[in-house]
Design brief:
single chain, 233 residues, alpha/beta, eight-stranded mixed β-sheet, 23% strand
């Protein structure tokens, strides 16, 4: 039994992997994405302390929904890779109970990637930018950390869904999307690619938490243009 910090649990998720899923939002993130709509997940010492046996009992209750819809459990965040011991324990418990597993990640963790991927059926990979400079400016992260996870992912046979947020005047150029395409082409077993239009639905959270919002004044991304850019991929 291990312990981990959980932000929240969504019992009937329909967009974070195939079928009906329970989405476990794990607490803590070492990125500071300019467009993050869940800044309340950043603090690794916040959230609810939960043990793995208690959590798997909750997840097993939804097995009839998983089985009828070919769904399962998705570990999201925050960044689930920041709690590797707890994540590995949960993934193992899910596999022991024949529950499909997905990890929704930006690839910024603490290691043990090969062990994590051994018990993962699907990686939903959020690629933040296509360049080292872009990672630093947009999400305050070092792209080499993402590349380390990508190396481990390339050695596995895990299926991959790609997600990328399109922000006006930042990640919405044809040049950027074509560079993104080069990264995607280097990844094995990509089943799905989604470009997500930037939105401002999380801005009020920043005001409540008294955190400066880096993209103040940036309009929501045009959905039609996002669809056109997706065709390039």
């Amino acid at each position: 039994m291990t312990f981990g910090r959980i932000h929240s649990i969504e019992s009937m998720g329909l967009v974070d992997g195939p079928g009906v899923r329970t989405v476990v939002f794990m607490q803590g993130c070492n990125l500071r994405c300019a467009y993050c709509h869940n800044p309340d997940t950043w603090n690794l010492n916040s959230g609810s302390l939960t043990d793995s046996m208690e959590l798997i009992k909750k997840l097993i209750k939804f097995k009839p929904y998983y089985n009828s819809s070919k769904g399962g459990v998705t570990f999201s965040g925050g960044e689930p890779l920041l709690q590797p011991e707890f994540l590995i324990d949960m993934l193992k418990l899910c596999k022991e109970n024949k529950i499909h597993t997905a990890v929704d990640t930006a690839g910024f963790g603490l290691g043990d990637y090969e062990e994590i991927l051994k018990y993962t059926d699907l990686v939903i990979l959020d690629i933040k930018h296509s360049s080292k400079e872009g990672y630093k400016e947009l999400v305050s992260g070092d792209k080499k950390n993402f590349d380390e996870f990508l190396t481990a992912l390339s050695k596995s046979n895990v299926k991959v869904w790609i997600r990328h947020v399109v922000v006006p005047c930042i990640t919405d150029s044809t040049e950027h999307i074509l560079k993104l395409k080069e990264i995607i082409n280097s990844i094995k077993n990509v089943e799905k690619i989604e470009l997500l239009p930037y939105h401002t639905l999380g801005v009020n959270k920043y005001k409540k938490l008294k955190i400066p919002y880096k993209l103040e004044g940036t309009a929501s991304m045009d959905k039609n243009k996002t669809t056109e850019l997706e065709k390039l991929l």
